[in-house]
Amino acid sequence: MGGDPLTRLRAAVGGLGLLSLGGYAVFLSWVPGPGMAPLGRYVAVFAALFVLYATAAWLVLRRRVEDRVLVVLILGFALAFRLPLVPGPVVLSSDLYRYVWDGRVQRAGINPYRYPPAAAELSHLRDPLIHTGINRPDKRTVYPPGAEAVYALAGRLAPDSVAGWRLIVVGAEALAVLLLLVLLRRLGVPGPAVLLYAWSPLAVFEGAQAGHVDFVMLPAVLLALCWRQRGRMALAGAALGLAALVKLYPAVLLLAWRRARDWRFPLALVGVVAAGYLLYLPGAGGNVLGFLPEYFGSAEDFNVGLRAFLTEPLGLEGAAREVVRGIVMLGLFGVLLAVLLRIGHSAREDPESLLRAGMAAAGAYLVLVPTAMHPWYAVWMLPFVAARPSPAWLWFTGAVSLSYLGYLWQPTAVPLWLRAIEFFPLYALLWWEWRCRTRVAVFIMAKAPRPGEVKTRLCPPLSGPQAADLYRSFLQDKIEQVRTLRRATPAVAYAPEAERPLFEALAPDFRLVAQRGPDLGARLANGFAEFLGNGHAGAVAIDSDTPTLPTEYLAEAVARLRRGDADLVLGPSEDGGYYLIGLRAPHPELFEGIRWSTPEVMPETLRRAEAKGLRVALLPTWYDVDTPADLARLRAALAGSQTPTPQHTRRFLTEPSR
């Protein structure tokens, strides 16, 4: 494929979008039908679409470019995926019939919590389409007042219309996408990362097809995060309260985003939730909770995760099974509470930390909740994944749809082996990501040691090949030095991209990442985005021009970032720049518009860090070897030192021909 890399990326994403569009057309033409057989066909189509989605996500995350054309292309396809599903038949879930019914009941002036759909008092509202499609018609509604208010609004805007409700869901998704783009910009994440939400087959099918109300909740959650990042506590609490009034589970974010001794956030949330329930209390009384208390009963168990793996192998039956089930449920709720409190206690006030706290809280809920796990419950993880990609949660947002196969075994439960396919890779990947979060990536900014391309300021006294050999020695010593660091992921950010085999030979045990960007600032920013986006506790970029730099300086940078007592670690160099920079979160503005190779690099970086409120840790000053005077200083330092390191540089400089 010809053209520049950006053009090739656009073409590749466009091609994958067209293939995906074909997949959604296959769904419409092949999947719908009577009985449960369509769910098996759906899982097959979903799997194919998920492969295309994962490929597109990999391309976008690999390049990490900010490109409006690409964003428009992604959003255009996202809309094209959804709109054909809006008028289609109901396939995945009959929940939206209850939504439309509750809207009809409220339009008739009746409190939706008062009667179940099968009650004689509502017989005059029944019809052969909506009423007959309701699941659990003998149960009162399970949905909180915020959801009921949305159903009432939909009942006025699009009375008794399944397609109308789906359009409302798509509209809520559009608002969520706009807020997600704002969030991505604030975090320094390129806009095309929105693809991880917009193209997710889980979001497309559970939204535009199944029409789940969870999507109406997403804009409120993202608005709460945006306001919380700006310190607008009351507004953030009110927005999160609205989210909890639509679906209760976003309330777990209260503990993750709380601020010590600041009551505005929780009081606003509690106030909004209380006001919502008070609106529906007249005429409902104690029934205002609807079906919710029964939801925790064993009859509602479906696709249960961790709790099932702890209890089902015991093979208990009857009363013993119910007792153990209750004990384990209480235990897991207790663990969830403890984890949420820990997340909130550890969170800091910067936008990145608050995002990670929210993502951790949502993840803890999905892992530990001991009740049913329907596929659409995982949807609220997708905006977090777009901002901070996670292999674990990307896997689960695909694998959770395997639970639809469980309906083929009804009335028995989803087989344990099928749930193992869903959940065990999630647990393994989460463990791997946790291991990464306890480590700091240390990446060497390196060029291929080619004559005339490296250390040119040392020519003369060195020839071009000699300068290249010296640089190779520097690089070899730096690789060996980084290899000795504990709790660090060693890596090389190399250039040019075609020289990967050379670096594979130099550092076979290091992670290799090609440098990307038109200048040093862009290459550094992309390097940090790469490593921090993979879940590391921090990342450190170092040059290869400091062969005598004490290893303890590098170890101190790693320790500072792991402990979290600094947001930015800098190792000043004598020429006004820095030989090391470490970050706990991406801050691309630290690198934009810097006049590199000037004495202003370090002062300007410190000014920008102060303006952002970053906690800065400074290491001792050291010197780079860039000029003939630096080279003479290096020779003298090595001549007066008895330590064997840096061995490659020492060997080069002590050869008679040098």
Summarize the structure in words.
The chain is mainly alpha-helical and 658 residues long. It is built from 26 helices and 7 strands. The chain has a 7-stranded mixed beta sheet, sandwiched between helices. Helix 1 packs antiparallel against helix 2 (37-63), helix 9 runs antiparallel to helix 10 and helix 18 (391-399) packs antiparallel against helix 19. The longest helix is centred in the middle third of the chain and has 29 residues, at 318-346. It is elongated and about 100 Å long. The model has no long low-confidence stretch (mean pLDDT 91).
Topology diagram in text:
Layout: H1 5-30, H2 37-63, H3 68-82, H4 95-107, H5 145-157, H6 162-187, H7 195-198, H8 201-209, H9 214-229, H10 233-246, H11 253-256, H12 264-280, H13 292-295, H14 306-311, H15 318-346, H16 351-368, H17 382-387, H18 391-399, H19 416-437, E1 440-447, H20 464-483, E2 488-495, H21 500-506, E3 511-514, H22 520-532, E4 538-542, H23 551-563, E5 568-572, E6 578-583, H24 601-612, E7 616-618, H25 628-639, H26 647-654
Parallel strand pairs: 1-2, 1-4, 2-3, 5-7
Antiparallel strand pairs: 4-6, 5-6
